């Protein structure tokens, strides 16, 4: 497999692993060094290389990310023994078109005013490294594989 | 409520919130700054102020913790909309009595030799800060509360 084919296969595999997990835990580092996590509604659209979340632009997690952009997003589907760890860098995105493209009523509980909320924004997590555990894999599988990462 | 009573109530509340969640995600910071998480079997014993996990002393997570002890442990029970974030400091514990006290056959899949595995050790996470979300609380509840933390 060449690098591009491997990368595409990696994206498909991650999409499969996180499919159907409606809530992920997003972990950030606070300025004092402590690690915080919180539940975040996942998007319905299929994973294509970046993860997207809706957030309020004035929230604690945004402050933390502007201070230190390294994050982890974890997915747990205990009923089928599926766990995924995504390491990446998060960025605040206020692009109106993207916000409208990704908006769904599932985010309503946290954004009562919906798209009219002046504080509504997106977090984009650019994926650097993924590890997953499932019944078939048994142990941990990491992507990119050591081989791919060395190229 | 005085500080001690509040702390005891906090411990009971956390015990209640994480009860029955068999797998938690443990997030650590790697030397290159990336955040990694992995599923960890939780202990059956009731939470009494510290979290304990079995680990191999030579594992990647132990290296990461020896380098940076700040960790997050997250618990997700999606079926009843319960999520918990525990921020704390992790330490490697090789105390034989404690290992024997906490050992249970549920850890067997990761320690085939059980207590005879020379590499078996514990991680103790001393809890600093907890946040939880549940249906009753609606939003996020943090402990210690700002008031308690200021004392
Ligand atoms: C099931 C669930 C899903 C959530 N989804 C989101 C979300 O998509 N976006 C969001 O900003 N907050 C969401 N929240 C609330 C966050 O967990 C958190 O309380 C809030 O964003 C403030 O976090 P912060 O102070 O760390 O920024 C959700 C909470 C729960 C319980």
From TrEMBL, chains A, B:
Which spans are transmembrane here? none
Domain named General stress protein FMN-binding split barrel: residues? 11-141
Q: Which InterPro entries match?
A: Split_barrel_FMN-bd, Stress-Dev_Protein, YdaG_split_barrel_FMN-bd
Q: Which Gene3D superfamilies match?
A: Electron Transport, Fmn-binding Protein, Chain A
The identity of this protein, by name, is General stress protein FMN-binding split barrel domain-containing protein
Q: Which organism is it from?
A: Paludisphaera borealis
Phylogenetic placement of the source organism: Bacteria, Pseudomonadati, Planctomycetota, Planctomycetia, Isosphaerales
């Amino acid at each position: 497999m060449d690098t591009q084919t491997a990368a595409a296969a990696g994206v498909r595999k991650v999409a499969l692993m996180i499919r159907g997990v409606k809530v992920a835990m997003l972990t950030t580092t606070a300025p004092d060094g402590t690690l915080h996590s919180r539940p975040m509604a996942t998007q319905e659209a299929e994973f294509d290389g970046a993860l997207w979340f809706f957030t309020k632009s004035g929230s604690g997690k945004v402050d933390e990310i502007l201070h230190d952009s390294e994050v982890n997003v974890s997915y747990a589907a205990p009923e089928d023994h599926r766990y995924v760890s995504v390491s990446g860098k998060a960025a605040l995105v206020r692009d109106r078109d993207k916000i409208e493209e990704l908006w769904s009523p599932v985010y309503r509980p946290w954004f009562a005013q919906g798209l009219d909320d002046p504080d509504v924004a997106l977090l984009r997590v650019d994926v650097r490294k993924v590890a997953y555990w499932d019944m078939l894999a048994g142990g941990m599988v990491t992507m990119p594989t050591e081989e791919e990462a060395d190229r």
